[in-house]
Amino acid sequence: MSEEEDALWQMTQYEGFEVHVAPLTREPGENTPLPAGQTFTYIGYVCHPGADPKLPGHAVPFHADGDVGFASPADALDEGMHVGRTIVDGTHPDLTVLPLVTGGV
Predict the structure, then answer these.
(1) For residues 27 and 46, what is the distance between their CA atoms, to the nearest angstrom?
(2) What are the CA-CA distances from residue 69 to residues 66, 93, 95 (Å)?
(3) How far is the C-alpha of 17 from the C-alpha of 20, rounded, in Å?
(4) Which of 17, 70, 72, 84 is least enclosed, having the fewest CB within 10 Å?
(5) Where are the domains of the chain?
(6) Higher pLDDT, 95 or 31
């Protein structure tokens, strides 16, 4: 099983969408130690209620930037939920739910 499958996913409903986020332990890069106190990160996705995120076009996946770390799983989860809400709101600089809306999924 992969780390994503074992992750402790949390979900909240927001503006007609589901925001799913899982905090993960950050892994140091090759020859690159992690900054002190920044040992967690997150992954997540936004979808319509009940959608299967494994199907193409059914979810908008997102994750923390590679160099961003958090002191606790709760901090990573909070930031991931915030980012998911910005995707739904249309204020995220790079990601949008528009394909989910226009694709009819």
Answers:
(1) 24
(2) 8, 20, 20
(3) 10
(4) 72
(5) 3-102
(6) 95
Which phi and psi angles does 45 have, rounded to 5°?
Answer: -155, 155
Those residues with Cβ within 8 angstroms of residue 15's Cβ, 6 or more apart along the chain or in another chain: 85, 88, 89
Q: What pLDDT is recorded for position 60?
A: 97
Give Cβ neighbours of residue 46 (< 8 Å, ≥ 6 apart): 17, 18, 19, 20, 59, 60, 62, 84, 87, 88, 97, 100
Whole-prediction pTM: 0.85
Rounded to 5 degrees, φ, ψ at 49 are: -55, 130
What stretches of the chain adopt beta strand conformation (E)?
10-14, 17-25, 40-47, 59-63
Mean pLDDT on 69-79: 94
Q: pLDDT tens digits, residue range 28-47?
A: 666 666 566 678 999 999 99
